[in-house]
Amino acid sequence: MMPRLGGVLYPGVFDGFVRLSSHYRLMLLSNCSPNGLINFMGYTGLGPFVADHICYGDSPRPKSENRRILLERNGITSAEAVYVGDTQSD
């Protein structure tokens, strides 16, 4: 459904991604199904501004392990990263 119905970004999110991506490598981590992030990035147009992504549907591991995978594959240490979540458990 995502490729056809998509979703609505909050006001300023797209512009914020564009501005942040000119200074930082932005990455997405999600518990969504396979291709969920790819569909999301395609629908919203955020794909060109995201350096890397991983979701549970593509790598069925706990979010903490997928976060570690993202960091390692991009040569980033935990001390260099800022993680912004959207739930209390993040």
Strand line-up across the major sheet: 1-2
Instruction: Write down the secondary-structure element order.
Output: HHEHEH
Largest beta-sheet characterization = 2 strands, parallel
- Put simply, the count of helices is 4
Strand tally is 2
Radius of gyration over alpha carbons? Answer: 13 Å
Strand portion, in percent?
Answer: 5-15%
Find the structural class using helix and strand composition.
Answer: mainly alpha
On the 0-100 scale, what is the average pLDDT? 91
pLDDT below 50 for ≥5 consecutive residues: which ranges?
none
The amount of helix comes to 25-40%
**N- to C-terminal distance:** 26 Å
* Structural shape: globular
Can you tag this structure with a few keywords?
two-stranded parallel sheet, 37% helix, mainly alpha, 90 residues, 4 helices, globular
Summarize the structure.
The chain is mostly helical and 90 residues long. The protein is 37% helix and 9% strand. The chain has a two-stranded parallel sheet with strand order 1-2.
What would you say this structure looks like, in words?
- The protein is mainly alpha-helical and 90 residues long.
- The chain has helices at residues 2-5, 13-21, 36-44, 63-73; strands at residues 27-30, 52-55.
- It has a two-stranded parallel ribbon with strand order 1-2.
- It is globular and about 35 Å long.
- The mean pLDDT is 91.
